[in-house]
Amino acid sequence: MSKSIKVVVTGAAGQIAYSLIPRLVDGKTFGDKIVNLALVEIPQVVDKLEGLVMELEDSYFPNMGEVTYTDNFEEASKDADWFLLVGSIPRGIVYNGKKIEERSDLLSINGGIFVDQGIAIGRYGKKNAKILVVGNPANTNAFIGKHAANNDSQLWMAMTMLDANRAKSILAKKTNNNVSDIKNMIIWGNHSPTMYPDSENVQILGELGSSVINDINWVESDFIPKVQQRGKAVIDARGASSATSAAKAAIDTVIACENPTDPGDCFSAAIASDGSYDVPKGIICGYPLMTLEDGSIEIKRDISLSEFAKNKFQISIDELLSEREAVKHLMQ
Ligand code: NAX
Predict the structure, then answer these.
(1) Where is the Lactate/malate dehydrogenase C-terminal domain (predicted)?
(2) Where are the domains of the chain?
């Protein structure tokens, strides 16, 4: 009999989740494992999930196990292997009578949510649970959640795979290659407009990006800002934020964690710094990661950063430190 796995998804009635959830049970993301889903929403919209569950049933996914939905995160957390934390309060909405426009307000409100979710995950999630935070501000939400969980055997990540996929797509076009020819794509720092997408250490058909591209003006004035601002460009064009590409990136992250990384490659996600690359310990920072044969996930440590790269990366580290400062009242 196939093994089973339990996956919790928050924000399950939102637009990313609508693309994401079917792919969790399609028999590809978790191989032949039976996937039990626990879908979580806020009380105001949780009933809508009945419709999603009906659609999942009607789709007939052979690998779909039990599907439950709830507004009770603690209940959903019990013995879960994976947590995809997509739900968060977006900028621009009115929350408790106030329009949420400042990043500091966003940090504070979502931070509060992640304290409670972190406590539940630490207490009720599996010992080796993996947590991927998608809801923004993703790195700092993960930082708060990890602190609240207080369970170091679990792995907290914030999603930067979408940024890596965007960067690969731009580099593939620039160099007339396939996206699959681009490896070792690293997003350093914060999932925000300060992120540093690394065009120097990327491998294009096995050659270092620094020698293939060799056009610092294009890198600085075109490539980096395009990756940093791609989310906004999608919003401007679509009238809504990235959804299907964000769902694909979350799936790519799960697959990258569930399977050993090919030698010479890495994948992008933000995890707690252990001091690697001189990043202050504890902040959730975008790094090059590898999944080893035993399933453990490690930072790839042999990347060399140019002075140009170090300067760009430092801007994002400084932003993460200022976000940490803004939420210190939540770190009891
Ligand atoms: P939607 O507004 O469509 O859906 C979010 C859902 O989360 C809503 O249904 C809401 O009711 C629910 N929710 C809010 N608080 C919750 C809580 N405490 N527990 C459970 N559910 C809760 O947003 P969507 O487009 O799906 O985006 C979700 C999040 O992803 C946003 O924060 C967005 O900024 C973030 N993104 C992150 C990306 C990344 O690369 N890390 C890229 C895409 C996206 O912008």
Answers:
(1) 160-329
(2) 4-158, 161-326
